[in-house]
Design brief:
Largest sheet: 5 strands, antiparallel
Distance between the termini: 71 Å
Oligomer: single chain
Strand content: 15-25%
Low-confidence stretches: 1-26
Length: 631
């Protein structure tokens, strides 16, 4: 075996001094000591015990129990120096216990006495053979304590993690009759592995007998689901506490935490114990190590009743560090208030115009319906994409807000286009500003004949869609639009947002922000620690004259167009609406409002059976009205 070779090579380093008539005495004491270490390392405790002068059963039990007490995954032993004085010898060895726990290794130098009797050399047995200073009745233990989990903050430094009830499952070790049985049953109920149960059992045995040991933390909802099964776990206790852990003011961004196996975290190189609460999604997952901090792990000696006698080694941990996000508490609250009462799946994403900071994200779910993905969803934007295609038309063609165009009921441009929902009578030749304000798809399909693929893709890239070089620490989709080439039907479909274009609500909020500020900026969700700079490839710039006209068009949509229901006195709101089919759900449509008020740009997306713009427009109006002044 490889280990055996390592130990045999160690013989070459052995020095024997103070010997008279060395001859056979040297190899004899060396062989005895070497074989004892080999058998111990290979967990052949019965054979190792025969190399000692102790009672074999007692010696074997002592060697075996230490491995279990430490929860060790491996042990390596190497011989050191041997000094012989007549029939007595002193020897040293080097021990390395692999404690698992993210790669912790406990290393120490041991010392052994040997004596030559009628049957040859034997190790003089006492518990100190295992670890210097260990006495009869003592035991080793590994104690791991976790610091308080840090929290995610809004941009003003207030916690996004609300104080809420937490159910702590644990034990009073002195009342636990069978620690391993308790740990195994708890692990089975909560989804932990057998190896985690072994480690948890060690924690129970090592913990002070009268002090509550928290093993697992659950949200009240999770506890209710598992309560019946948890009642069958022997000697398990629970207590209700209040912590900043499970409830968030911005859950889409912060993500969720739950109890996971320690294996999840050992991948990150941290020695967390089973039952640790870890981040599963969002920023809780992305900054798990920073938020959780580092546990303090100690190898200690205890007496028979669990009193700690001394610390043999300690890996000092440290508390977690808070992470400050770009989320604005006021904007987030306005979004939540706007979403109150919603009956269909919906989402709002708000960003800072000109900066890209994500200010608020709210999602509403409805039973039996698909869930909106505010940051990483991939949806057709429908006519809300005419913000982009209008920029291309205004920059590349002699189109202005007053240019007369036609809004047909149907318009075949490479493929049939119809207005969904049906447009009111806009007259025989309404202005471009009017067809924009009423989101007339057939008009834009016809206007697309004035564009080429380069002009349309350049406009899309100027708004960050396609070829975007940005990355958030949480899943997000940067938007995409395929090059339509010279295919008139594909250019028309992309122009009205029903072709290859795929965006998330975040993408469209950034589009609105570009109109508001006159420039597109990649999204940010972190304020501290500062995000790493992203080297972005050059992208087309928005012309100031084009931006000015887009603002006028988007204001007209709210004042007299399809989003008129969102208009409020004293609220200067700009926007555009859209509707598109929802892939995989033939009876549902994606309903959009994309706009801005002040320096807050946002997108609203609602899943509805009706193609009417009203569900998104209603939420947008409430949100804009609820924003604090000067936002």
């Amino acid at each position: 075996m490889v280990r055996g070779v390592a130990l045999l090579c160690g013989v070459c380093l052995v020095v024997i001094i103070g010997v008279t008539g060395i001859g056979w005495q040297g190899p004899s004491v060396t062989a005895t000591f070497r074989n004892f270490l080999l058998d111990w390392e290979q967990q052949d405790y019965t054979t190792a015990a025969t190399m000692t002068d102790g009672t074999p059963a007692v010696v074997a039990s002592g060697l075996r129990s230490v491995y279990r007490q430490l929860g060790a995954e491996d042990l390596s032993l190497a011989m050191g120096q041997i000094t012989v004085h007549g029939d007595d010898a002193q020897a040293s060895f080097f021990a390395s216990f692999d404690l698992g726990r993210g790669g912790l290794s406990w290393n120490y130098t041991g010392h052994v006495m040997l004596h030559r009797g009628s049957s040859g050399w034997r190790v003089v047995w006492s518990p100190s053979v295992i670890v210097p200073g260990l006495r009869a009745g003592n035991r080793l233990a590994v104690l791991t304590t976790m610091p308080r989990r840090a929290v995610l903050l809004d941009t003003q430094g207030r916690s996004l993690i609300n104080r809420s009830p937490v159910i702590e499952l644990g034990v009073k070790p002195g009342k636990v009759k069978h620690p391993l049985r308790t740990a195994e049953k708890l692990a089975k109920v909560t989804g932990l592995a057998q190896s985690d149960a072994d480690e948890m059992s060690g924690q129970i045995e090592a913990w002070p007998p009268k002090k509550f040991l928290e093993l697992v933390q659950l949200s009240p909802a999770s506890y209710r689901q598992l309560r019946r099964a948890l009642r069958k776990v022997p000697d398990l206790r629970h207590r209700r506490v209040v912590k900043r852990l499970f409830e968030s003011a911005a859950p889409v961004v912060t993500g969720e935490v739950a109890t996971e196996t320690a294996r999840t975290l050992i991948v990150d190189g941290e020695p967390y114990r089973p039952g640790t609460t870890v981040g599963l999604t969002g920023l809780q997952q992305a900054f798990q190590t920073k938020l959780a901090g580092k546990p303090t792990t100690s190898v200690v000696v205890q007496n028979a009743v669990g009193k700690q006698l001394r610390v043999l080694h300690r890996w000092q941990g440290g508390g977690g560090s808070d992470v400050r996000t770009t989320i604005s508490g006021a904007v987030q609250q306005a979004a939540q208030a706007a979403m109150a009462g919603a009956t269909a799946p919906a989402a709002i994403v708000a960003v800072r115009a000109g900066g890209g900071q994500i200010l608020g994200v709210v999602r509403h779910s409805a039973r039996g319906m698909p869930i909106v993905s505010p940051l990483d969803g991939r949806y057709q934007p429908g006519q809300s994409f005419t913000i982009v295609s209008s920029a291309a038309l205004l920059a590349s063609t002699p189109v202005t807000a007053r240019t007369p165009v036609k809004c047909y009921k149907r318009n075949p441009v490479g493929q049939p286009f119809a207005n969904v929902p049906a447009e009111p009578n806009l007259g025989t030749q309404p202005s471009f500003g009017t067809v924009f304000a009423h989101a007339c798809s057939t008009a834009f399909a016809g206007l697309s004949l004035r564009l080429n693929s380069r002009e349309l893709t350049d406009a899309a890239q100027a708004f960050g869609i396609g070829g975007a070089a940005w990355k958030l620490p949480i899943p997000a989709f940067p938007g995409v639009m395929n090059n339509p080439g010279n295919n008139a039907g594909k250019i028309a479909a992309d122009t009205v947002g029903s072709g290859s274009v795929r965006v998330s609500p975040l993408d469209m909020a950034l589009v609105a922000g570009a109109v508001d500020a006159g420039k597109w900026r990649a999204p940010l969700v972190l304020k501290q620690p500062a995000p790493a700079p992203v080297t972005a490839s050059p992208r087309p710039e928005l012309r100031p004259a084009v931006v000015t006209q887009l603002r006028e068009l988007m204001r007209e949509t709210v004042v007299s167009g399809a989003a008129k229901a969102a208009d409020r006195r004293g609220v200067l709101l700009y926007g555009q609406v859209g509707t598109a089919l929802l892939p995989g759900h033939p009876r549902l449509r994606a309903i959009w409002f994309v706009g801005f008020r002040g320096k807050v740009a946002f997108a609203v997306l609602v899943f509805a059976k009706s193609p009417a713009f009203s569900p998104a427009v209603e939420i947008a109006g409430k949100f804009a009205a609820g924003l604090p002044g000067g936002s």
